Automatic annotation (TrEMBL):
<dbReference type="GO" id="GO:0004639">
    <property type="term" value="F:phosphoribosylaminoimidazolesuccinocarboxamide synthase activity"/>
</dbReference>
<feature type="domain" description="SAICAR synthetase/ADE2 N-terminal">
    <location>
        <begin position="7"/>
        <end position="231"/>
    </location>
</feature>
<keyword id="KW-0067">ATP-binding</keyword>
<dbReference type="GO" id="GO:0006189">
    <property type="term" value="P:'de novo' IMP biosynthetic process"/>
</dbReference>
<comment type="similarity">
    <text>Belongs to the SAICAR synthetase family.</text>
</comment>
<protein>
    <recommendedName>
        <fullName>Phosphoribosylaminoimidazole-succinocarboxamide synthase</fullName>
        <ecNumber>6.3.2.6</ecNumber>
    </recommendedName>
</protein>
<dbReference type="InterPro" id="IPR018236">
    <property type="entry name" value="SAICAR_synthetase_CS"/>
</dbReference>
<dbReference type="GO" id="GO:0005829">
    <property type="term" value="C:cytosol"/>
</dbReference>
<comment type="pathway">
    <text>Purine metabolism; IMP biosynthesis via de novo pathway; 5-amino-1-(5-phospho-D-ribosyl)imidazole-4-carboxamide from 5-amino-1-(5-phospho-D-ribosyl)imidazole-4-carboxylate: step 1/2.</text>
</comment>
<keyword id="KW-0547">Nucleotide-binding</keyword>
<dbReference type="Pfam" id="PF01259">
    <property type="entry name" value="SAICAR_synt"/>
</dbReference>
<dbReference type="GO" id="GO:0005524">
    <property type="term" value="F:ATP binding"/>
</dbReference>
<keyword id="KW-0658">Purine biosynthesis</keyword>
<dbReference type="InterPro" id="IPR033934">
    <property type="entry name" value="SAICAR_synt_PurC"/>
</dbReference>
<dbReference type="InterPro" id="IPR001636">
    <property type="entry name" value="SAICAR_synth"/>
</dbReference>
<dbReference type="InterPro" id="IPR028923">
    <property type="entry name" value="SAICAR_synt/ADE2_N"/>
</dbReference>
<dbReference type="InterPro" id="IPR050089">
    <property type="entry name" value="SAICAR_synthetase"/>
</dbReference>
Amino acid sequence: MQKLAELYRGKAKTVYTTEDPNYLVLEFRNDTSAMDGQRIQAFDRKGMINNKFNHFIMNRLEAAGIPTQMERLLSDNEALVKRLEMIPIECVIRNRTAGSLVKRLGITENQVLNHPLFELFLKNDQLHDPIVSEAYCKAFGWASEAHLAQMKKLSYQVNDVLSKLFDDAGLILVDFKLEFGLFENKITLGDEFSPDGCRLWDKKTLEKMDKDRFRGNLGGVIEAYEQVAKRIGVPLAPFSDNVSANKKI
Ligand code: TMP
């Protein structure tokens, strides 16, 4: 499947159309952004690691019955995905306190929540992705009640699958962000799941192994991403098309 035209350039990925209107190519760049894109830095190998990380996680989620947009890897930095009609909302699940929750409530980090939280944020960099409610989504038509219910259900399912996967690898899945869209009228997981969009702490040392290393200038960003990928078994060897040749659409 060939890339045709650039459709959208995000902060870390570029999206291309293909000859098939139902499919897109996601290109994972080395760029890493913080502060809603005000701070950007490129890290060697990051695009490759996140592309393979995302492909691995999406395959695991598909195997658990969660519909995702993933089709297959195309190269070290590219994946073929279904074209979704994106819902402009970010779904966040939190198992422990961290990040914006800590700032918003003035509480300490690393409190285990009695029940995982499900939060909604409007995708809008200029407004710094404000937190919104299900009522806002319905009132402004960002997502219907039925779609929200499905997004919530799938987010909790993702949490169950991935909390276990990371726990088995000695990591705590603190929180993460998901984006959904519609494919043939069905709520489908889109965007990416990588250390850019979640918090992962080492179970023993509580060392941060995710984008907080970049946000907090802690150094060792790529080393942490690579270590997480290796711990959960993401194959990082150079891409070979042989594996996916029989899956071509
Ligand atoms: P937060 O603590 O900044 O609200 O983020 C919660 C989790 O969601 C954290 O793992 C980072 C992720 N996230 C993104 O990747 N992008 C976003 O735009 C937002 C709001 C959260």
